[in-house]
């Protein structure tokens, strides 16, 4: 037994020595005396949505109180580092309806004021998400345009431009959801680039849909090219906390990229664009015993910044600043819908039984609107103001329902409170359109009773359109 332990210790020690030689010593020896004019840029992005599928709507740790606590910590750390002369900046993307419009003004107005201050004083950027943190890739054109236009500016003054005075023309889609056709719509609205995960884990967007990118390509802007839909759009590959762990630490990550620059394998500047949920405990850091303080990825945002702040080949940047001075390095193409759910797809928002029920409610409301428009177009009359007001109200409910939070990604169930919120929302939406459709059906039947051809169908009730195919 004593020999067994001796041999085991010797083997472990040997593996450790080989690790030091092969992974640390040799790579460093290979770049001794070599230089590179290129740099490594790091952008730190915070994805802020305080309306959750797995938490409730309360100002405590069970609800959005956690978001408020961690975002305040992020701002505190960024301010602290700036005071020490570290020019680090934040790249923020906010959902407007729930977070900027309803929650923050009531429970944490200081967050809005401090980010406004940071935008003016330290150069933080605010890019777009979507107004209702919506299922943007599953929206109709009208819904899509409404969501993105209202994310920029709206009558309730909760748009990014309304609050921060400026918005940068990039979008970080909620849940990384995109679909062919979205990119041209983004361009029509003045949006120049899309931030999408190229991640090491299934919490990803497009990595499995394209050929493997080189390190230089994976850390630089790309051009999305879809020859079927004739879409071209700038794509910024982004990474999350899993990628920091995949690369051991941010320090190890930049060291690896630097070695490749010095060896001539990377012939350009590179960008590590980190973007992750602003409520992630990672940013705050974890309480560990003093003898474990050295463990990477445990000290929060402060540790991440300090690990690389002194390196002369590393610069903190923002997405817009980097894109302004660096051209895309490669074209990519894929036709799949993207989402950062399980298995690189939409299963996290579709697998629950009531997701189908919720989607049915969305479709019924859409069809109700289509029915009203078709009827008044047929009789060549404008839609009455009262009906138009009702449709507008149900549309607002529908946009609220189209929030990704109402479908997932919590699994196998949403938080019970969230289920109740969604059920109440659907009831209110349906009560509006049901009343409109009931009155219009009676009106339509009255019109048909005056038409001799329509009287042939007097024993039938119009439900929806039916297409009969006959061989």
Compact summary:
This protein is of the alpha/beta class. The chain contains 17 helices and ten strands. Helix 2 links the parallel strand 1 and strand 2.
Description:
- Mean pLDDT is 91; it is low at 465-471.
- The protein has helices spanning 2-30, 65-83, 96-107, 109-122, 141-152, 160-164, 182-188, 215-218, 241-246, 250-262, 281-284, 300-309, 319-325, 347-350, 353-378, 385-401, 416-449, and strands at 40-48, 90-94, 125-128, 170-171, 193-197, 222-226, 231-238, 270-277, 314-317, 331-332.
- It contains 17 helices and 10 strands.
- Helix 2 links the parallel strand 1 and strand 2.
- The chain folds into 2 domains: 35-344, 7-stranded beta/alpha barrel, CATH 3.20.110; 351-451, no CATH class.
- With 471 residues, the protein is an alpha/beta fold.
Descriptive terms for the model:
7-stranded beta/alpha barrel; 17 helices; single chain; disordered C terminus; 471 residues; five-stranded mixed sheet; 47% helix; 2 domains; alpha/beta; five-stranded parallel sheet
Draw up the topology in text.
Layout: H1 2-30, E1 40-48, H2 65-83, E2 90-94, H3 96-107, H4 109-122, E3 125-128, H5 141-152, H6 160-164, E4 170-171, H7 182-188, E5 193-197, H8 215-218, E6 222-226, E7 231-238, H9 241-246, H10 250-262, E8 270-277, H11 281-284, H12 300-309, E9 314-317, H13 319-325, E10 331-332, H14 347-350, H15 353-378, H16 385-401, H17 416-449
Parallel strand pairs: 1-2, 1-8, 1-9, 2-3, 4-5, 5-7, 6-10
Antiparallel strand pairs: 6-7
